Records
---
Amino acid sequence: MKRIIGIVLCHPLLAATLFGAPLKVRIDPGLVHQSIDGFGASDAWQCDIVGRDWPEAKRRRIAERLFSQESDSEGNPKGIGLSIWRFNIGAGTAEQGDASEIRNPWRRGECFQRPDGTYNWSRAAGQRWFLESARRNGVESFLAFSNSPPVHMTRNGKGFATRGVPDLNLKPGKYPAFAAFLADVAEHFHQAGLPFDYLSPINEPQWDWDKPNQEGTPASNIEIEALVRLLSKELARRKLSTRIVIGEAGSFAHVFGKVKDDGRDDQARFFFDPASAFYLGNLPNVAPILAAHGYFSVWPLKVQVENRQKLHRAFQSTNPRLGFWQSEYCILEPPNDEIKGGSGRDLGMDLALYVARIIHNDLTIAQARSWQWWTAVSQVDYKDGLIYLDDGSKGKTGRMGPETTSLLKNGFVRESKLLWAFGNYARFIRPGMVRIECRVEPDSSNSERMLASAYSGTNGQKTIVLVNLSREDLTADLGRPGQVDVYTTSSDSDLRRSRQDAGSIRIPARALATCVSR
C-alpha cells in the first residue's frame, strides 16, 4: 500500500485524477517583502517548574520538540526549531509565596535581585535550564521580558497593581533602579555566555493588572518613554549589544489608533514618528521594532483582515523602516463558528488551522517580521500552550491546573497539532529569509480553501507554506520542474517528510504542507 501511495504522489497525472486539478502556486522572487527575524514562544511560567523539578528525560523531550533542528533517519523533523526564545524576568512573587496573593504557584516568578540590591543568580533555575537547552539546540535569538518591576521596587509591594491606579507600579524615584536592574540581568547573562539579543521592559501596558492572577503592571506611553531612555543609556554605557523592544501592546488597536483616551494608545506614532516629541527611534540600543499582541483582533474573519491592513498602513505612514513583531498570542476569544473559545485545551487540527490562518495573515497582510506564541508549555485546561502537561489519570488526558499538585514534580507530556503546525513555519522559515510574492490561481475562493506564502534564503532555498483549510484533499502546482521535500502536518502526521513532484503537491484535507527546494 505504501508503495502504491508513493507512486501516486510522484505521478502528477495520477495525483491530479485522485485529488482534483492542481491549484497553481506562483512565486515571484523579484518582488520582495519583509525580512524574517524568527518564530518563538515564551518560558512563562511553567518552564521554571518543569526545568527545575521534572525528570530529566521528560525535560529533554520537551526541549527537543521545541528547539531541535535535527531529523530522524527518514528525514522527519524531531522538533519545530524555534528561532526565538522568550525568557521571563520574574518580579519576586515566588519568594513572597502566599503573601504575594497570587494563589497559583505556577504563575509566580523568582527575582534575581534581593531587596538589599544584591543578586542571587541561582534563581529561576528551571528557566535557565531551558535557556541553556535552547542555546545548545541552535536557537538564534533570545529575548528577556519583564511583566513587573521587582516587588521591592513597586508602590504596593506586590507583583500586580493597585485597583484604580493605572500608573506604572513603581515607587517614585525608582526609574533608574529599575533600568539598572534590567541592565544587570542583561549583563550577567552576557557574561555567562547566554546573551540576550533583545530586552522588553514593559508587557501589555494597556491592561490594569490589578488582580492577583499573575505579575503585571500598567504603564502610560510617557512612563514607558522615560524608562526606555534610562535603559537605553544604561545598556550603551555598559557596551552591551542587547536591544530594547518597545510595545508589547495588548492588542493591535493600541498600535494604530486610540482605544481609550488614557495615554496608552497610538504607540506607532508616539514612539516612532520622527516628528513626535517622544520619538525613541534615534536612541542607542533601541531596536527599530514595535511589538504587539494579536489578541481580540481575529474574529470575524473580515475584522481579522481589516485589523492587519490598518496596522500595516500605520507602520507605513509613521515610519516605513519600522518593523512589526506579533510577539504574543493564544486563544482568548469567546466561542465562534470555528472554535469553542479559549477554555478547554485542543490538541487537534481545528485549533492548529485556526492559528495557521492567523499566522498567514500576520505575515502576508501585517507583514510581521516575527511571530511568537504565548507559552510553550501549559498545565491548564486552556488553549494557551504548544505542549501540555497532565497527570495521565484518564488515559489520553488527565487532571490539570494548579490544584493538581503532582504536576509540580512529574506528569504526562502531550504534543498538540498546533505545535507541529507552528513548525511548518518556524522550522523552515529561518531568520534572515525574506518573504517573496506568492499567489494562488485561480484565486476566486482560495482564501477559504488554500493559503500560500513563500520565502527565500540567501543560499537559494525556497520555502512555500500551504494551508489547506478545506475538507477535501487538494493538489498544488508550484510551477517548476523536479521534486521537492514536503513536510506535512495533518490529523495523522507531524511534519512528516515526503518527496513529491513540484507540479502536483498533495495537501490532505485540513492540513499544512511546507515545500522546501533549492
---
Amino acid sequence: MRYTTLISTAELAAHLDDPQWAVVDCRFKLDDKAAGRQGYLAGHIPGAVYAHVDEELSGPIIPGKTGRHPLPTVEQFAATLGRWGIDNETQVIAYDDASGVFAGRLWWMLRWLGHDAVAVLDGDFRAWQAEGRPVVAGAEKRSPRAFVSHPRPAMQVSVDEMLANVQSGQSKMFDARDEARYRGDVAGLDPVAGHIPGAQSAFYAHNLGPDGKFLPPAQLRARYEALLGGSKPEEAIFYCGSGVSLHHNLIALEHAGLGRGARAYIGSWSDWITDPSRPIATGEGT
C-alpha cells in the first residue's frame, strides 16, 4: 500500500524497520532557524534524517527578485533526495511538530519531482511522543540512492500568471495565512501587509481539530466545497506568506477526496511584494 496524503502514528510505527521507507524530520521555526535541527538532534523518530527548510527545501534568495523560500533547482533537490537515501521506489514519510505545516513543503516538493509515495504524519511528532513511541538522539544517515526526477511544472504558477489572473479572475485564489495577515492588520515577517486582490481567505489551521490532527475527510470536504463555490479544485491557486503553509491546504483537499490538481504560487506574498507596482488589497476581501 502506498501512502500519499496522511499516515497515522500506528501505521508508521509498523514500518520503522522497512528499508523501502524513509522518514524525514522537517521541524522548523521561521523565527528561530536553528531550533528544528536542535530538536532533531535532541530526539527524533528512529531512522529519520533531517531536512532544513531554508537550506535543503529552498534555493538561494535573490533580494528584490524572489520570496523568502524559492525552490531549489530540480537537479539540486534530486541530489538531496538521493543523499537522504530516497529513490523512486521509496515510501517517504515527512513529519514536524507544527501539524504538518513544514512537512507539507517536502510533501509537495516530492510530488513536484514526480514522486507520489509521500505522506505527512498526522498529529506530528507531538502525537508520536505522547503515545510513548520510540525516540532516539543524534544525527542519522541513510545509504545514498539515485533519485531520477520527473518534474511536473504545471503544479505551480508564476508571478506573471498570478498577475494575469488578478485581471481575468479565471481561477479562484486562496490565501493560506491567518485572517489578520490576510486583512492586512499585521504584516508578519514581510515588510508589506495585505493580500493579492481577488484572493479569498483560507487559513490552513481550519483544517485541524483541537488535537492538532487533520479533520475527518467529510468535514474537510464540506469546507473546501464551500470555498470553491462550485469551481473545480484543479482551477484553484493557493499561496501563503513564503510558499510553506499553502501545501497544508493541498493535502487537505486531497484527503477530503476532492482530487489533486490545485496549483501553488510558491513565491507567495513575499514574492508578490518585491515589485511595488503589483496591486495589493486589504480588508475582508472577496
